[in-house]
Every structure is written in structure tokens, then in C-alpha cells.
Write a structure and sequence with these properties.
Elements lengths: L11 H35 L1 H25 L2 H10 L6 H29 L10 H13 L1 H16 L3 H24 L9 H25 L4 H9 L6 H24 L1 H8 L1 H38 L2 H28 L1 H8 L3 H16 L1 H17 L3 H25 L3 H32 L2
Helix pairs in contact: 1-2, 1-7, 1-12, 1-13, 2-4, 2-5, 2-6, 2-10, 2-12, 3-4, 3-6, 3-12, 4-5, 4-6, 4-9, 4-10, 5-8, 6-8, 7-8, 10-17, 11-12, 11-17, 12-13, 12-15, 12-16, 13-16, 14-15, 15-18, 16-18, 17-18
Length: 452
Amino acid sequence: MTLPFCDFTSYRSHYGPLVRLGVPIIVGNIGHIVLSFADTLMIGRYGMKELAAASFVNTLIVLLIIFALGYSLGLTPIVGSRYGRGEKASIGQVVRQAVVANLLLSLLLVAIAVGLYLNIHRMGQPEELLPLMRPFLLVLIVGLPFVCVGNVFKNFFDVIGETKLTMLVLVMGNVVNIVGNYLLIYGVGPFPELGLVGAGISTTVARIFIPLCFMGVLLFRRRYRVYLDSLLHDRREPGIFAQLNRLGWPSALQTGMETAAFSLTAVFVGWIGTMALAAHQVMITVSQLFYMVYLGIAVAVSVRVSHFNGQGDHVAIRHTTWAGFHLILLIALMVSVPIVLLRHEIGAWFTDDASVHLLVAQCVIPLIIYQFGDGMQCTFANALRGLGCMKPLMYGSFVAYFVVSLPLSWLWGIYMGWGIVGIWFSFPVCLTVAAIIYYAIFRRSYRELSSK
């Protein structure tokens, strides 16, 4: 299987379906980015200490949320292969057992988050930020079970091709969050001025709102009756719960380790100081712009790969994967140009501190460098999820993010004294390593499928 950069004719028929499936996901993800930007802007304008505290707490919570998202992706190959074979009547019971499995996971995540809350003073963060961090973290913990249930329904609707619906629900959830931020951070009208805690409350309310919307659609839209009937009335099919866990845990560990490459570095950044933490929060917000757009196309790749796998169409699996990578490279080029041109202005959007502006401008360079590796690893990771190939993906992530990324971040950022810029220059290395490993796993998996 050669690298298909010269001859695009074999992939032409896959570009359109990927765009139609992926664009609504991208719009929903951009809504998430708008929300993240709005959160950071509103908190940053309220106070720089609040911005730094939000950076650290969000880093910890995002690690748990991404772990939960990865676990829920165990649903994709099961539902996708059944949908590809036209077995719609059995999908609802898979969703029901996925809801139970993800609620059980949420209990573990809440326990971990409470442990972080009780030990946050032991993590080497600036003392003046602790009174801001603790209540903010406590409010966000409440929303974790709702995030887990929302993940199940979002993945289900995505896999059956209803990406426009998930886009609409996510956008409405973002609107709820932004309005809540405005009212509760600053204390507009009869609402109290709660600062950072207000931002946490509005985020939690939005996270409760999203799964309730998905469940309402499933209950009251007739077109989903076949799934609802199966969800409510079918007898439990033996083996589904075990299969969800067999696929979900390696996927959760993979996404968790990937996120840890960014999230756990916030601890290193906190050792450097408040300014560095504020710049790190700005850069994380900007980097999400790239990743969430990539992820829309990559999720479309995962969905279509799962359908083709159910149909036994192995050639289409390869073609749709490479077509997705082509689209992601095009997106990377389009997004990189304005970010480079505006690198000296980006920091000023979030805070008035000139030191933060300079750090942000310096960190934009490694951000741009790692886009090729990030796009490639995102594409092939999601193709492997569509195939249900989770364990090799998990092992590859361990090498890229724990063996390479975290030690390199500490070496360059802390030991060698390069600061936050040194930490950010470790990301191009680990993401390129991940891309190479995932491509090798995909190539081997494709050969095994083709030989059957």
C-alpha cells in the first residue's frame, strides 16, 4: 500500500460523502471552540488569576472528559457494522447497554475528580490560585455523569449518519453555556456576580442540557422509532456489554494518554508560573481550533470505515481513510496561514498582559509545525476505531505520549530551562511518532483484513 499523494482518482468518490458527513460535525466542534474562546475571553477579562486557575482546572477535567469520550467510542464499530449490514432493529439494545456502561464509568471519574479536589494543594500550583481552583473544580465534577451519557447518544446519532442533529444539539448547548457565562460571571440583572464559579455553573448546566436534548429527540421523533423500540423492549443480547468494555477501555486509555501529553504538561507549566499558565490556556484554546476541525473529518472516516467493515468492502476502507487524510491536510493549510499571520495579536484577544502576548506568539511556531503529524495521527486513529482495532492503538499511544512526550516536555521545559516554549516544542515530536505508529498499525490491520 503506497502513499497516495500523486493519484487522487481512486479516492474521488469518497471526498463528497466524507464532507457531507463531516461538515456538520465540524460545525458542532467549531461551536465547542467558540464556547472555549468565549469562556477564555470572559474569564480572562474578569481577571488574570481567574484565567490561570481555569487553565489548570480545565486541564484536569478535560483529561477525564476525553477518557470518557474514548470509552464511549467502543460503541462505534459495533453500531457501525450493524448499520452497514442493515441490522437497525438490534442497534437500540446496544445503545441501552452503552448508557449503563458509561454511567458506571462516570462513578469512577467522579471519584477520581474528588481525589484531585482533595489533593490539589499538593500539585505545586501557585498558592494564590487555590481558593479559585477548588470551587470551580467542584462545580465541574457535577456534570461528569451527564457528559458520559451525552457521549453515548452523540456517537449513536453520528454513526447512523445523523450528524446534522448532533451539530444542532451541540450548538444549542454552547448557546446555553455562553449566555450562562455572561449572566453569572459578571452578575447581569438579578443574577449574582460569581466570577469563575459562575463559568463553572453555566458549563455544568450546558452539559446537563445536551443529553436531555438527545433523549427527547429519540423519544418524540417517529423516524427513530425502530431504535427506541429496540432500546426499550428488546431482551439483552449476551456479550454486548462485554464487547463494549473490551473495545471501550483500550480506546479510553488511548485517548486519555493522548490528552495527557497536553493535560499533564499543565503541571510542568504551573511550576514555571502564573504567566506561563495563562499563555498555556490561550494556546490550548487555539490548538483546539485545529484539532476539532480535523476531528470532524476523522469521525466521518471512523463512521464510514465501520460501515464498510460491516459490508466487507476492504478496498473502500483504505480509500475512505486516505481521502480523509487529504481533506485534513487541506484544512491544516487553510487554518495555519491566518494563525501564523496573527500570532502577535492572539494573546491580546484574551488578556492585556504583554508577557503573555509574547509567550503565545513564541508557542505558535511549534503549534504550526505539529499540524502534519496531528492530522495524520487523528486520521489513522479514527480509522482503527472504525475497525474496532483498539488495543494496538492503546499501545502505540503509550509509546508516543508517555515514553516520548512527557519526558521530553520535562527535559526541554524544566530541566533545560526553555520554559513553556520548550514544553510546546515536544508536541511536534510525539505527534509525529504517534502518526507513524498508527499508520503502521493500520497497514498491518488492512493486510490482515484483505487476506481473509
